[in-house]
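Appendix B, record 7
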Amino acid sequence: MNYIRVFQIMLQISMSVLLAGCSNILGTDPKPDKTEREINFQITLKDNSGFMVALFSNNGVRGAQINLKSNALGTEYNLISDSNGVIRFNGIISDKYIVTATRKMMSEEMQIISGTGATNIKLVNKKNRIIELNASSPVNIELEMDLVIGGSPLVMSEIYASGPQGSGLYYHDKYVEVFNQSDSILYLDKMMIAVVYTNSNTGLQYRDDPEFVHSKSIWIFPGTGKDYPIQPGQFVLCAEDAIDHRLNAPNSVDLSHADFEFYKDDAPDIDNPAIPNMIKIYQTSGNDWLIGGETGALILANFSADSLLPFDDQFLIPYRTVFDGVEYKADPTKLDKKILNEGIDAGSTGGIQFYTGKSMERILISDNGRKVLKDENNSSVDFMIIIAPSPGRYH
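Structure tokens (predicted):
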């Protein structure tokens, strides 16, 4: 008998058994089947405005729309609360969720409540936006009165900031895309795109400022009034550098046919003479237009650059002039670290790592002859992550 061969076989068997027993420690076992994480859960929506009591003699918010978005899996759930304000989830995956609950007040209801017949009132959850769904006790979420903010005619439809895959630290292919939601021709002349300033000490913008957005990077579209129309359903691409980036980074995109380019004329920046330049109003740092790769916030505003208010090393832009605002974060659930005021953007998109080539695109809700994009003033539910940028079009 070949004792050495027998020993080798027994050793292989022993190692196989040992590795199988240690697979959880080594991380070689697959994740638990999702059924092991499924739970039944209940959320109750409570009204602290007094409207529901006046109408139905209890404070449960009936007929509210609730959206839950899983942080880890991206799964979304959309349900309507019952007559007691209760939503029951059967077989929901245990995870941390971003919660958006809204209840539009009808004019007939407001006539009973206040005698006004107002049509611009809603109930929303301004707190409890992040909840952990597990097998513990049910969750109560309070809804507060708020004003309905109509969808903006102009929105930022896509923000690409992460940089391409497999191209070292290449990051010059960033862009922001603007979309005309309306059914009318609008004009971009002198419209403003600003990067929202974050305090280097706290990491936060002055989001509790009751009137103004703070910015250190402010650019406007060229034109004197009606030089640059944007048609209904048109995407307008504003590129950091309007070149074919695939020549430098094969996994990048061709932005040589962009509609506008951020050209910083006081720095060694690239200028495509065939593309109209955005006009730099204020940006002292960097050799190009700069937006954060993983975390940042942008606004689109209709405000005269001549009326900007200086504040330390920043300028102030009134909230009332903001058409659209989008915030993105490395971890979109950390809403306690928000940059933008919640009146402009109640949530956050993102969760994209550097140099993954992924992009943030507003969700399409209708394409019946003309595209309509989601605009709830809440980037947590308005945006989705796409695996590759789609400049100047919907993916």
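Remarks on this record: Residues 3-21 form the longest helix (19 residues). Residues 154-386 form one domain.
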